[in-house]
Each structure stands twice: as C-alpha cells, then as structure tokens.
Design brief:
The complex is a heterodimer of chains A (262) and B (249).
Chain A (H helix, E strand, L loop, with lengths): L1 H35 L3 H41 L8 H40 L2 H7 L4 H39 L4 H10 L3 H27 L4 H32 L2
Helix pairs in contact in A: 1-5, 2-3, 2-5, 3-5, 3-6, 3-7, 3-8, 5-7, 7-8
Chain B lengths: L1 E10 L2 E11 L4 E5 L6 H8 L7 E6 L2 E2 L5 H8 L2 E4 L11 H6 L5 H5 L1 H14 L16 H14 L4 E5 L7 H18 L2 E6 L2 H7 L2 E6 L2 E6 L1 H6 L3 H16 L1
Helix pairs in contact in B: 5-6, 7-8
The chains are: A mainly alpha (262), B alpha/beta (249).
Chain lengths: 262, 249
Amino acid sequence: MTSTILRLPRFTGRLILGFLAQFGRISLLVVELVRGLSEVRIWVPRTFTEAATVGAGSLPIVLVIAMFAGVTTAFQAGYQWQSNLPVYILGTLIVETIVLELGPVLIGLVLAGRIGARYAAELGTMRVTEQIDALESLGRSPASHLIIPRVLAATLMLPVLVIIADVVAIVAGLVSVKQVLPVTDADFAYGAKAYWKPFDAYYSLIKATSFGFAIGLISCFMGFNTKQGAEGVGKATTAAIVSSSVVILLLNALLAKLLVST
Amino acid sequence: MIELRGVRKRFGEQVVLDGVDFEVREGETLALLGPSGTGKSVLLKHINGLIRPDSGRVIVDGLEVATLPRKALSELRTRIGYVFQNGALFDSLSVFENVRLGLSDESKFNDLEYAERRVGECLKLVNLAPDTARKFPAQLSGGMRKRVGIARAIAGAPKYLLYDEPTSGLDPVNADIVDELVKRLDQELGVTSIMVTHDVRGAFNVADRIALLSDGKIVLQGTPDEFRESEDPKVKAFLERDFEDSFAA
C-alpha cells in the first residue's frame, strides 16, 4: 500500500531530476561551445563546409515541400473565399500564411528530421567508436571541430532555406489560385502588399534562425552524449528528431506570443 | 614519469578500479595485463584525462591530470600519444588527414608541405606504403587500421605512448607484426609506453616490466622474469590460462 502511495511522487521526482540533469548537461555543452569560439581558425572553414553540405543537401526536399505547401494553401484559400470578398484578399491570405507560419514551421520540422538525424547519427557513431575520445586525446576540442560548425551551419542555413521556400511557395500559390478563381497577377500583388509589414519578413527569419539553432544544438547534444553502441545511436537519433520537433513547436508558440501577439 | 596513487573508479554499482597504485619510469615499456573487462582501458584513459578518478591521483610529469585546467590538459595530451583499441580513425577523413590531425603544433598542421613529409615519415615508421595516405579507413584491413592509429599517435612526436589492446582482433601473424612494431618504435623513438593487453606472449615479448590488474587492483608489477617466477595464485592462474589460449590459437 505504502509503495503504491509513494510510486507517484517517486516517479515525479525522477522525472524532475532527469530533466534537471539533462538541462545541466546541455548547459555544460553551451559553455563548451562558447569556449570553443576562440578557436576561429578551426571552426570557420568547417562551418562553411558543413553549411554547403546542409544547404545543398536539403534544397530538393525544401523545394518539393514549399511547392506543395503553396499549392495546398492556394486551393484551400480558394475554397474558403466567398464572392462578397475582394479577390485580392487571396494574395494577402496566401503570402501571410506562408511567410508567417507555413514556411518556417514546415521547413523547420522537416529539417529537424533531415539535419537532426544526420547530426545525431554522425556524432553518436563517432562517440561509440571512440572517434570523439581520439579527438580529445590529440589535444583537440570536439566543440570547435565538431559541434560549433554544425550548430552554426544549421542556424545560418535554415533562414536561407526558408527564404527560398517562401518564394517558391508564393509562386506556386499564385499559379494554383489562378486555376480555380479569376485572380490576376495585379490582384495578387495588390493583396500581398496591402497588409504586408516589413516586420513579417523579420519575424519569419527570427523564427527560422531560432529553429535552426535549436535543431543544431539539440541534435549535436543528443549525438555527443550517445551511449551503448548501435542501439544508443538509434535512440539518440530518434530523441534528436522528437526533441527538436517539440522545441520548434514550443518556440513557435513562444515567439508568436512575444513578437506578434496583441 | 607516470604515477597512479590510490586511484578508484566506479560506474554505478560496479567498482572498476579499487585503489590502483603503479608507476612507469622514463623510457620503459610497461605491459598492463589482465582479463577482459577488468578496467585496463579505463585505467589507461585516466592517464590522459579522458576519465577522471572518483578518488586518488594520476600524475604525469609532476602534473595532477584530474585537476589540470582545460588548456593545460590539452597541452599535456599533445605529449601523450594514444592508440585506441579499434583504431578510432575518423572514417570521413583520408589516412593522410587522420595522421595529420596528430600534428599537435597548429602551425605545422597548417603547413601542408611539412604535414605531407611528416605523415609520410610516420606511415613509413609503421611499415605502410606511401599510397596508403590517399585511402580511407574503410578501405584498410584491421591490421592496417591499427598501424594508422599508431602513425597518428606518433605524428606529434609524443613523450609517452599509450596502447589500448594493439593486437586484439588480429591473427597471430599480424599480432606479432604489431608487437614487433611497438618494440621497435619504443626503441627508435625513445618513448615511455604503456601497453594494455590480455596477450601474455606479446607482453613478455615487448615489455620491460609487467603489471597485472585483477579485481580493480594491481596484483603484481615486476620484470617478465619476476612474473614467471611469481607464486601469487592470481598471477599463476592468469599466466597458465593465457598460455593455454596462446597455444590453442
């Protein structure tokens, strides 16, 4: 009976301790990253290489997703449009939906899978095959050689990919909406400009940058702390994708509240 | 000189090292023997600070490794070459880039002409052909990977060399080649070495002194002759069992 009563507080305590331990470990990693920033000659060239790999490798999937997001948004906007509304409003709806929400969040979630899995699996494999130990034993910092370039590459490339995705999705939206409703290019452009604020673009890029940083940091953290062989690499990869996705959704809500909530 | 004084280490409930004491003198080669899973590799990782002891002291060149600041630890590590059990080669880098990473001096690392010359020298020292430099770890045999691991460890001209099971997973012929290589490098480079192994024959062939780790403690350390003549039941049991394994192989 007593053990049943104690089970819930024990479980809660373990959960809180686990969370605090994880928070402590990720804070230590951030400290290591800040220290590693002084080794500019090490991480700068590796960041460019990593950014090129991440950017070029992610481009095809980003283009496909952006195109379908634009097409779907246009068809659904067309479905919701009523004849008493001006047609230019479709331009507003499609552009704002894509720039403010669909572009950064969809691309963020997909890249949490693509980049997150890659980083966690790479670093996890390096951990279980002692490659990270080998790097340390050579007097070299894993932070400046492995983690800073990956975190920075994700942070820098996500906004670039989101800009590309936004443009492709808007063009796809324009082409698609013209198939279902009598909208001209001028109507669409007028609607897009009518409610457009420069802050909308900044907001989209702030979201993309913070999502990129979260994906890079969380995935590297999971991979770097991998234990127990191949099974551990699998667990780290799954944890990286799930945690990055959840954090993206949390950040999305938090940034909406902080930056655009009235 | 490397000294370990009362080093204890546990992982969860499992006590791995339970008050280990030993020292390695300048220029000597010490073989650390012990059955698999007794913490030999854990002990080796204490020496270059990859693992910190729960208590006790690990002292290298008068410096206590566990309390060294980050920069001093990195500097100390450049004086300690570490050969990992499975090579631990960076699989996305060529052999050249792997060995080049062993150049601890950043200016030498960035001097491509010097790096090419030094990598070539190191590959020659471990009996590998110059064209091995262009290959990737996945294209190498187990024995070659071990030798590239040794080449990387010696590239920075370290004062100490730590070998973690350099012959494990190799057939007897390749194991003998690696043993001879270790012996030759220790003589030619004048380094102080610790070789972790459970291969008694190799240890007797290579080492100036031998230490046996069992149940988290050093049971005996002495010359190969002192080892052979020891009446300690743990030493006798280990030697008899391992010689039988050697003959079976």
